[in-house]
Specification:
- With 161 residues, the protein is an alpha/beta fold.
- The chain has nine helices and five strands, in the order βααβααβαβαβααα.
- The chain has helices at residues 7-16, 22-25, 33-41, 46-53, 75-87, 97-105, 113-122, 128-136, 144-160; strands at 2-5, 28-31, 59-61, 91-93, 109-111.
- The protein has a five-stranded parallel β-sheet with strand order 3-2-1-4-5.
Length: 161
């Protein structure tokens, strides 16, 4: 599967060391140049700057031809949504609430960084509890109680299968 990504999930996955999961889960990750610019501008994040300056083979940069502004969204979010729509890719990797709502309103399926971690854990390539602990040690804005609840749900579902 090919997925279009915004910068926020890439930044979080780079901070936690889990960006390595993306080529295991997706054939290709496509980002617009606006996302590369956001990654390169992250002053405290060397892994994000590395992605921007030396994109790995699985990360493809592609411009959206008609990236019309979407109210209240950053340029990277807007460009990622427009690119996913132009390419006919029905799923987007995006975390910010406004971006998720805008993507959903345009018929895109949304996956966030936490969903990537859960997907990798379901495939058996990641310990979800350890991954969530790494997320908790970052500045990513998510309730620790919500992560704990998702971990319990994941374990309950896996215990029944």
């Amino acid at each position: 599967m090919i997925i279009v990504a915004d910068s926020s999930p890439l930044i979080l996955l780079a901070k936690t060391g889990d960006v390595r999961l993306l080529p295991l889960l997706f054939e290709r990750v496509v980002v617009p140049p606006e996302v590369i610019a956001e990654l390169g501008a992250a002053p405290a994040l060397a892994p994000g700057r590395e992605l921007a300056s030396n994109p790995p083979d699985w990360l493809r940069v592609c411009s959206a031809r008609g990236a019309a502004p979407i109210p209240r969204l950053q340029p990277g979010e807007t460009a990622a949504i427009c690119l996913a729509l132009e390419l006919g890719i029905g799923v987007i990797l995006i975390d910010e609430r406004r971006g998720r709502h805008a993507a959903t309103a345009r018929g895109l399926r949304v996956l966030g960084a936490i969903g990537v971690l859960e997907l990798a854990a379901a495939m058996g390539v990641l310990d979800l509890a350890a991954a969530f602990e790494r997320v908790k040690r970052t500045d990513f804005r998510i309730s620790h109680d919500l992560l704990d609840a998702r971990l319990r749900t994941f374990r309950d579902v896996r215990g029944r299968s």
